[in-house]
Every structure is written in structure tokens, then in C-alpha cells.
């Protein structure tokens, strides 16, 4: 507190300097008059003179008071700041360049830091979030998967290390409103799910254990946003009825605004998950959330869940063969946001290289400026200024530049935060990134740190010159003698560093661009133009069973097939290119995996024959699905060409048999045909797929897919009318396959653009640094170059001399950059497709680009060297 009070008084003394000076003079005048009067009464011959001597001199007293108040250092600082501002104003080009370089780099770094903190580090909106885990199934092959009802039942009953445990399955529901049915995102959850997250209702209650019992009255908990949208306010929602998938549900509660997404995607409504006793270990697709009991470690919970896995395996062995699979607790933060580490790490690494290059570039400019001010510093030193005083002037100038750069950095960071959702829309919580005072402080501190680092370059010049400065002033009539060897070496090192830092950026941008082009040009297996789909969910439809669903899908396909302008229509459980959830494990009857090990998996869409026609998928071998492939008929499947080549490379796959989903007591599945490839695991994934007839796997969520000549709007109107004719309460979501394919390329495209922009900045900084250094060296060596010309050297030889010297820096920097590019391979590799992270061609192209840029940056000063006039050069010596 005392330090704060003293600082406040010192600042007050500077801000109100005039008033305090007047107060000081009045006080001194009072003391002087009092002392003079006393001397006069004592009979002094010169009372005023003796009074002044007694007080020690008025000016000395003023200085003493200033020193006592600690004002003098602050006055000196203010004077230095004013001098720095005047000096920088006289050099606007230099000032603007340095401020923009540091401000843009630090601002970009601030924006990336804000995104990383919000996405990866910010706390979850639940009490004691460090105790929350997601219970996943870890397979022997190392992959992770969802749970089935068997695991949910076992963990709920046996896991003592979990204080609470619950499960959820995300579904789409149709909400019937005044404007007709609307599709909303919903979840079916157990009461333990809400207890584990320790969330509370803003109004009413949450799902309770009784709601999960089969046959219990249908209730629903709405999100705060959905309650406002549907009923006007959360208060009016509780107790009202809402129709979901044709069933009336009573609204029993409304969640708080911050809890729209409960450990998963944003969700509008939560209905009870009514658990029937499992008949086999499957199907999967449920997410389990648990809260560790107080004092229980993650390792202890993992051990207990492993024991539960070992106990349930023999019970359900007939329907699940993987004895190596284990239930594992994964910290919820890691489970939800772990996948975001790769793209954020990519952006963070790129912006870090840009910041380092910017600092090196600014330091180079300041070194050149320090050399240009060598005469000024020599004059100051000759007049008595010591190294400390000169260093303080330079440091103050760098801090002023940092302050100006902080303003630019704040603006750049704010722009970056606004652009973040467009640059990386798939990152979790990206829309919650905001610009606040903490961000302003971070940008300011970053600029100050960068300014202090940059200041080391000119300060090293002062430290190296020292007492030699006055001698430089008098030598050669005050002519410039050029920078010392230390200064020249420092500038060369900084330029080399800029090339070294730009190299991995250029390599990364080139690799990402190549990867994107290969993804974009990859054969899709179908023509997406003119193909449209309706995403339809019957998850909560009344009296929904396999028989009623089969009849619903049959009627819908028949209705859609009658629509004019739609030559082909079909149904499918999933559509390309990104549908990772619709997979199934299987085993080959004639080539089974070793007992108890992980079975292979493959995309497993249930389709009708019309789906192949709608997408243009060709039948290569065997037969298509027929009317006889019904629910009671022997199970059949059609496989893709890639699947057939992978598992039966030297023979036909037709006629081979599979065990589906590990169910050894189920009828075997026979392969009846092979079709052309389509990608379901993303454009970068394999094109393997196993198709089964929709009549044998009707399911609740299917796509109505149509190839149309009508255009998007007319096609969707026609398909919706066909759906309404079958069931007017079902709300679909329209999907355009051209947009779906484009969305699959979205992240690679955005990564390429961002890293490409950073690489462009890095290369530009290296070019500016090289140009500045070589232009300065040409000016410094003007007399030498003039002598060479006078002695007969050709202009071309001078050009080669300048370019050769600059290219040495570029070659050395590129060599160091190759090592940095090899180090970045481990982070860049997972984001690439069809290209190696250490591709020699990418390294070679990057090196050629950098050398070409360096040659251009050196050629301009080299051209200036060829235009030197020997007489003028010698006369300025």
C-alpha cells in the first residue's frame, strides 16, 4: 500500500506539476520571509542574503524537494518519451513499418491464444469439472467407441468409483408447432446423466429415475432457448405439453442458458431414455458420463471399469467376440475437445514462427536505425552522456514503439476473434471466444515483451561502442566509419533467422495445399450434382417397431418414385462422404480373426436398390437387392470394390459369408454383389463399405435420396410433400450433396488458407529484412564500390557481389529451416492426405521459392550499386 501511495504522489507531482511548483514557491517564499525577518531582528547587515544561505539556496531546495518526492526520474522518463515521439515522427516510414510488423504479429498471436484458451483450457460449466469422465469402450486395436445397453447396465450397478453415472443417445425429433413440424436436436438420457454433470434446472425439475422406467409417462426437459422460442418464456413452459415425434410430452423442466450443450452437441430437448433389458451386447451408440467419487483417482476408476469389462465378457460372448475391449474413463475435457489440439497446434505453431520472424525483422530495422544514428550518439557521448543514458533513450524509443504496436495488436486480435468462427467453425466453443480486457492486457504485454527483446539489438550496439563513440565523432572529420563487426554480424544473424523461420511456414503451406488438391481431386464414386436428400428420424414415433418402420419406408419410397422430374430415388442409413457413426464390426467365416481379438469394422449403410441408382453406384459383380431380401429372408449384403479387394484380393467375394456384429447365434450373412466405391469415412478415408437391405435393417434414422432435374428448391418441396402424404408429423432436414462434399473439404481448405497467409507474411518479412540489410550495406560501402568502378570493375560484377552476399544469408537460413521443417512433421502429418510430411519435393520447392525471393530482394540494392557514380562516391568519403 505504501508503494502504491508513493507512486500515486509521484504521478500527481507530474500531472499537476505547475500547481505544485507554485505551491512549492509560495512555501519557500514564506520560509525565506520568516528567516529574513528573524535575521533582521537579530541585527544582521544582510538579512536576506544570510537567510538564503541558511536555507541552502532556493533552487537547491527545489531540487531537493523534487528528489525527495521521487519526481525527477519520472520527469526524465516523460522527457525521454517526448523525445522518442518527436524522433519517431521525423521517421514515419520506419515507425509505421515497425509498429505494423509487431502489432500484426502479436495481434494474431493474441487471437490464437484466446481461441486456444477458450477451446482447450477454459473450465467446463459444471461443478468440480476435474472429476467428470466420459466412459468409452477401448478396443484392442487402440480405437475408442460408444457403449451398449449392456455396459450402461453393468457400470450403473457395479462401478463404486463413480459417484454418479448416466447415459445419453443423441437423436433428431420432430416438434409439432403452429407452423407445422420442425426438426430439433434432442437427447434421450438417464437421470444419472444429469446427476453426474451436477446441473440444475432453471425452472421445474430434471429427468428422474422413475422417468426411465419402460412405460413411464412421456416427459421432456427443454433448453432455455427452446423454451423461450416455443412458449415465450421458461416460466410459461413448465407444465405445458409439447408434441415430439407425434407423442405428447409434458414439459417438467427448463435448463439454464449455459447448459444447452450437456457434455456434447447443442441440444434443444431432453427426453427420458427408457431402458429395456438387453438381449445381446449391442447395438452401440450410447455415451456414458460419470463423476468420480471424492478421493478416487483416474487410475483406480480405470482398474475397476476393466474388472467390469472382464466380468461381462463371458456373459455376452455369443454376441461380442472382442475380449480385449475394456471400459475406460477419459477426462471429459479431453474427450470433448482433444481432437481440437491438432488444428489449434497448427495455427499456434504458424503464428509463433511469424512472431519470431517479426521480432527478428524489427530488430534488424532497429539495428539499421542505430547505425544511422551513430553520429548523434557520438555527439551525446562527447557531451558527457554515459552508456546508461544512451541505453535509456533507445529503450524508451522501443517501449514507445511497443505502446503504438499494442494499439494495432488489439485491433488485429479483435478482428481475429470475429473471424475465428469462420476460419475454424468446427472447433468446439469457438463461438464463445470473446475480446475482453484480459485480451487487451495480453496484447499489450506481448507487445512490451516483443519491444524489450527487439531493444536488445540496438542496446548491443551501444554496449559495443562504449567509450569509442567520441573518437568516431572526431575521426575522419566526423564521417561515418560504418558499423562494427559485432553489429554487422548481428544483422546477418537476424536475416538468417528470418529465412529459417519462414522456411517451415512455406513448407507447411505447400504440403497443406498439395494435400487439399489431392483431396479435392479424389474420385468420389458418384456425381453429387443434382442429388438431394431428406434426413428423416422416426426415433420417437409411436408404436415404432421394425414392421411399422418397414411399411413407412416402403410407402415413402413409392410416393417419391412417382414424383415427376425425379428419375431415381432410394433410402439409405448414411450418405457420403462424412458419416463416421454408421459402422459395424464383422468377422469372415472362412478367415476369422483370432479368438478374443478385435474384429474389423466397416461402414454399414442399410439401403434400398434405388439408392444405388440415385447416386450412380455401379453393380460390378453379382446381383442387386431384390424384393425377396425381406425381413424374414436369409441376411444378404453387397460390398464395395475396395472392401472386396481388401479381404478377398485374389478371388471373388460373392458367395462369401460374414458374422455380423459379433453375433455368433445369428444367421450368417451372404455377400451377393460387389459395387463401385463411395467414401463414407471422409474423403481421406478408405472406400470400403458393406450395404445391407433396408428391409432387413429398417432403423429409425434414414435418408430419402433422390437424383433430380428440378433444382434444389423444387426437389425439396416435392420430397417434403411425399413425406407429408405418409406422415405429416415428421420434420425432415434437407441435404444437398454438393454442399456436403464441399463441407467435407472445408477444414483442409481453411487450414491451407490460414497457414498460407502466415507463410506469405513470413516470406515477406524475410524479403524486407534482406532488402533492408543489403540496401544499408550498399550505402555503407558506397565509397568502396565507387573505387571498384573507378578501377575498372563492371556494373554487372557489383550486382553479383551484392546478390552473392545476400544469397549466403538465404542459403544458410534455408538450411536451418530444413531442420525446423523436419521437426514440425509430427504435428503436421495427421492433417495431410496423400503426401508425406517430409516430402523432399516440398522441401525443394520451398527452398527454391525462398531463394528466388532473396535474389529479388538483393537485386534491387544490387541495381542501386551499379548506378553509383565514382566521383560522387569518392567525394563523400
Features:
877 residues, alpha+beta, 29 helices
Detailed description of the structure:
The chain is α+β, with helices and mostly antiparallel strands. Strands 15, 16, 17, 18, 19, 20, 21 and 22 form an eight-stranded mixed sheet that branches. A hairpin with an 8-residue loop joins β20 and β21. α5 packs across α15, α13 (341-372) packs parallel to α24 and α15 runs antiparallel to α16. The protein is globular. It is built from 29 helices and 24 strands.
Percent in strands: 15-25%
Rounded mean pLDDT is 83
Structural class: alpha+beta
**Uncertain regions spanning at least 5 consecutive residues:** 67-71, 467-471, 473-482
How many helices? The count is 29
Give the termini separation.
60 Å
The helical percent reads: 40-55%
What's the number of extended β-strand segments?
Answer: 24
Structural Rg: 38 Å
- Which descriptor suits the 3D outline? globular
Q: Main beta sheet: strand number and arrangement?
A: 8 strands, mixed
Briefly, what is this?
The chain has 877 residues and is of the alpha+beta class. The two termini are 60 Å apart.
SSE map:
Layout: H1 2-15, H2 17-41, H3 47-55, H4 58-69, H5 71-89, H6 92-121, E1 132-138, E2 144-145, E3 147-148, H7 149-158, E4 162-177, E5 180-189, H8 191-197, E6 201-204, E7 219-222, H9 224-231, H10 234-237, E8 241-244, E9 247-255, E10 269-272, E11 284-292, H11 298-312, E12 326-331, H12 332-337, H13 341-372, H14 374-382, H15 387-423, H16 437-465, H17 469-474, H18 485-520, E13 531-537, H19 546-561, E14 568-572, E15 583-588, E16 601-603, E17 606-607, H20 609-615, E18 619-622, E19 636-640, H21 641-647, E20 657-660, E21 669-675, E22 690-693, E23 701-707, H22 712-726, E24 733-736, H23 737-744, H24 746-780, H25 782-790, H26 795-823, H27 825-828, H28 840-866, H29 870-875
Parallel strand pairs: 5-10, 7-9, 17-22, 19-21
Antiparallel strand pairs: 1-2, 1-11, 1-12, 3-11, 4-5, 4-8, 4-11, 6-9, 7-10, 8-9, 13-23, 13-24, 14-23, 15-16, 15-20, 18-21, 19-22, 20-21
Helix pairs in contact: 2-3, 5-15, 6-13, 6-15, 6-16, 7-11, 13-16, 13-18, 13-24, 15-16, 18-24, 18-26, 18-28, 19-22, 24-26, 24-28, 26-28
Amino acid at each position: 500500500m505504501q508503494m502504491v501511495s508513493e507512486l500515486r504522489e509521484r504521478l500527481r507531482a507530474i500531472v499537476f506539476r505547475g500547481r505544485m511548483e507554485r505551491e512549492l514557491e509560495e512555501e519557500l517564499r514564506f520560509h525565506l520571509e520568516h528567516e529574513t525577518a528573524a535575521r533582521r531582528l537579530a541585527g544582521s547587515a544582510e538579512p536576506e542574503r544570510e537567510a538564503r544561505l541558511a536555507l541552502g539556496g532556493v533552487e537547491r531546495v527545489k531540487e531537493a524537494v523534487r528528489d525527495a518526492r521521487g519526481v525527477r526520474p519520472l520527469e526524465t522518463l516523460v522527457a525521454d518519451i517526448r523525445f522518442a515521439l518527436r524522433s519517431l515522427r521525423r521517421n514515419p516510414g520506419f515507425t509505421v513499418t515497425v509498429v505494423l510488423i509487431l502489432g500484426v504479429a502479436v495481434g494474431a498471436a493474441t487471437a490464437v491464444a484466446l481461441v486456444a484458451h477458450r477451446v482447450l483450457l477454459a473450465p467446463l460449466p459444471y461443478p468440480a469439472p476435474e472429476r467428470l469422465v466420459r466412459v468409452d469402450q477401448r478396443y484392442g486395436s487402440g480405437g475408442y467407441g460408444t457403449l451398449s445397453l449392456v455396459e450402461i447396465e453393468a457400470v450403473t450397478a457395479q462401478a463404486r468409483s463413480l459417484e454418479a453415472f448416466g447415459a445419453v443417445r443423441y437423436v433428431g425429433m420432430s416438434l409439432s408447432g403452429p407452423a407445422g413440424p420442425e426438426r430439433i436436436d434432442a437427447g434421450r438420457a438417464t437421470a444419472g446423466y444429469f446427476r453426474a454433470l451436477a446441473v440444475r434446472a432453471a425452472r421445474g425439475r430434471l429427468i428422474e429415475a422413475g422417468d426411465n422406467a419402460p412405460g413411464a409417462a412421456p416427459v421432456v426437459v427443454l433448453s432455455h432457448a427452446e423454451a423461450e422460442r416455443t412458449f415465450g418464456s421458461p416460466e410459461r413452459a413448465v407444465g405445458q405439453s409439447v408434441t415430439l415425434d407425434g407423442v405428447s410430452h409434458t414439459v417438467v423442466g427448463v435448463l439454464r442458458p449455459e447448459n444447452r450443450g450437456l457434455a456434447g452437441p447443442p441440444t434443444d430437448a431432453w427426453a427420458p431414455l427408457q431402458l429395456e433389458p438387453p438381449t445381446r451386447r449391442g447395438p452401440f451408440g450410447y455415451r456414458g458420463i460419470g463423476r468420480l467419487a471424492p478421493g478416487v483417482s483416474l487410475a483406480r476408476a480405470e482398474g475397476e471399469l476393466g474388472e467390469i469389462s472382464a466380468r461381462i465378457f463371458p456373459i455376452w460372448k455369443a454376441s461380442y467376440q472382442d475380449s480385449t475391449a475394456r471400459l475406460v474413463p477419459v477426462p471429459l475435457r479431453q474427450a470433448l475437445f482433444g481432437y481440437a489440439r491438432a488444428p489449434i497446434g497448427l495455427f499456434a505453431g504458424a503464428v509463433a514462427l511469424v512472431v519470431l520472424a517479426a521480432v527478428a525483422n524489427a530488430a534488424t530495422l532497429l539495428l539499421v536505425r542505430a547505425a544511422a544514428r551513430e553520429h548523434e550518439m557520438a555527439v551525446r557521448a562527447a557531451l558527457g552522456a554515459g552508456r546508461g543514458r544512451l541505453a535509456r533513450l533507445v529503450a524508451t524509443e522501443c517501449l514507445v514503439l511497443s505502446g503504438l504496436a499494442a494499439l494495432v495488436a488489439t485491433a488485429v486480435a479483435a478482428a481475429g476473434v470475429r473471424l475465428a468462427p469462420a476460419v475454424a467453425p468446427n472447433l468446439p466453443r469457438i463461438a464463445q471466444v470473446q475480446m475482453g480486457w484480459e485480451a487487451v492486457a495480453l496484447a499489450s504485454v506481448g507487445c512490451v515483451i516483443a519491444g524489450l527483446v527487439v531493444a536488445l539489438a540496438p542496446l548491443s550496439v551501444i554496449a559495443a561502442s562504449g567509450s569509442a563513440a567520441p573518437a568516431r565523432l572526431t575521426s575522419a572529420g566526423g564521417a561515418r566509419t560504418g558499423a562494427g563487426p559485432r553489429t554487422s554480424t548481428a544483422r546477418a544473424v537476424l536475416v538468417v533467422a528470418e529465412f529459417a523461420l519462414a522456411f517451415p511456414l512455406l513448407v507447411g503451406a505447400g504440403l497443406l495445399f498439395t494435400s487439399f488438391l489431392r483431396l479435392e481431386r479424389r474420385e468420389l464414386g458418384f456425381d453429387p450434382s443434382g442429388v438431394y436428400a431428406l434426413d428423416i428420424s422416426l426415433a420417437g414415433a409411436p408404436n415404432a417397431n421394425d414392421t411399422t418402420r418397414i411399411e413407412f419406408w416402403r410407402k415413402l419410397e413409392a410416393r417419391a418414385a412417382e414424383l415427376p422430374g425425379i428419375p431415381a430415388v432410394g433410402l439409405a442409413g448414411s450418405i457420403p462422404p462424412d458419416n463416421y457413426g454408421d459402422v459395424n464390426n464383422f468377422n469372415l467365416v472362412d478367415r476369422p480373426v483370432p479368438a478374443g481379438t478385435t474384429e474389423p469394422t466397416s461402414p454399414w449403410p442399410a439401403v434400398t436398390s434405388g439408392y444405388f441408382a440415385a447416386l450412380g453406384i455401379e453393380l460390378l459383380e453379382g446381383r442387386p437387392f431384390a424384393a425377396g431380401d425381406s425381413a424374414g429372408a436369409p441376411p444378404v449384403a453387397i460390398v464395395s470394390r475396395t472392401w472386396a479387394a481388401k479381404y478377398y484380393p485374389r478371388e471373388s467375394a460373392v458367395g462369401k459369408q460374414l458374422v455380423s456384429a459379433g453375433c455368433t447365434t445369428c444367421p450368417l450373412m451372404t455377400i451377393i454383389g460387389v459395387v463401385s466405391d463411395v467414401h463414407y469415412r471422409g474423403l481421406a478415408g478408405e472406400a470400403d463399405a458393406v450395404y445391407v437391405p433396408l428391409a432387413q435393417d429398417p432403423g429409425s434414422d434414414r435418408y430419402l435420396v433422390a437424383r433430380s432435374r428440378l433444382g434444389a428448391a423444387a426437389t425439396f418441396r416435392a420430397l417434403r410433400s411425399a413425406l407429408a402424404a405418409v406422415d405429416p408429423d415428421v420434420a425432415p432436414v434437407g441435404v444437398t450433396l454438393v454442399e456436403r462434399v464441399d463441407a467435407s473439404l472445408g477444414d483442409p481448405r481453411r487450414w491451407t488458407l490460414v497457414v498460407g497467409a502466415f507463410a506469405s507474411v513470413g516470406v515477406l518479412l524475410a524479403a524486407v529484412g534482406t532488402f533492408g540489410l543489403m540496401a544499408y550495406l550498399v550505402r555503407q560501402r558506397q565509397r568502396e564500390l565507387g573505387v571498384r568502378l573507378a578501377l575498372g570493375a563492371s556494373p554487372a560484377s557489383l550486382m553479383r557481389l551484392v546478390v552473392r552476399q545476400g544469397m549466403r544469408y538465404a542459403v544458410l537460413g534455408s538450411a536451418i529451416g530444413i531442420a525446423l521443417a523436419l521437426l514440425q512433421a509430427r504435428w503436421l502429418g495427421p492433417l495431410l492426405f496423400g503426401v508425406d510430411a517430409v516430402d523432399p519435393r516440398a522441401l525443394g520447392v520451398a527452398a527454391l521459392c525462398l531463394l528466388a525471393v532473396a535474389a529479388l530482394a538483393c537485386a534491387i540494392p544490387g541495381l542501386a550499386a551499379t548506378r553509383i557514380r565514382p566521383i560522387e562516391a569518392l567525394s563523400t568519403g
